[in-house]
Known about the structure:
Largest sheet: 6 strands, mixed
Mean pLDDT: 81
Distance between the termini: 28 Å
Strand content: 15-25%
Number of helices: 11
Amino acid sequence: MTDPRDRTPAMTSPTTLTAAAEPVVTLEDASFSYGSSTVLTGVDGQVPVGQALALVGPNGSGKTTLMRALLGMVTVSRGRVRVNGAAPGRAPRGSVGYVPQLSDLDPTFPVTVREVVQMGMYSQLGILRRPGAEARRRALEALESVGLADRADRRFDRADKRFGTLSGGQQQRVLVARCVAARPRLILLDEPFNGLDQPNRDALLSIITDLKDQGISLVISTHDLVLAQETCEQAALLAGRQIAFGPRDDVLVARYIDEAYGGHGTTRLLGLRSGAGTQEPS
């Protein structure tokens, strides 16, 4: 685990074959800025191949900033960051997938499920090329991987009965399929469980497990300590700076949770261990 008070390297499990591979994400004492304003400091750790990292912390702690920085959308003002062996934003096309929050989608844009998934391959196809048989096949395979192949020709809209047929949870799974179709090494998920009912929540948990089994790494922003415990081998606890980064069970402890949330760490930890959890308001 990486604690800013003792800069030891992030630990990975020696029992997995992926532990010796080059990490998909490497952060070395990295700080991030919007213009002249530094908003997150001292992030130091790694995301191994086939593992998931939970970004945990209160609202405004830097979770979204770090995720955007991995996409090359935020300035790295100090330290070093590598994503798939390259600077953020310069990784090979299709090697990084991003699943936004559903609230970021345009509910008025008319498009089929198949077309949404094929969008994940546009950077590889080129702007002027239309998806061919191979792209359509990959789109269907990606939908099958998230259990939605039967939705391929239905309308994909967020507006209730007026425009669409898919629930919010099904839409989230289609967005994951869009990433999978591009065959990435890393997928970033921004609060993916917000607003999901239990069946879709369970389906997404299963999908995340399958992705890791395929050697895909994930970075998951979440307020929910229970989900962090269930889905992620690594955790980064943030509060405008790094509190701790490393193996989940070393990071999600009362001492660090107290520091990130300004107290009440023991209460949150008891909820985590009992399975009750405590969810921050969005």
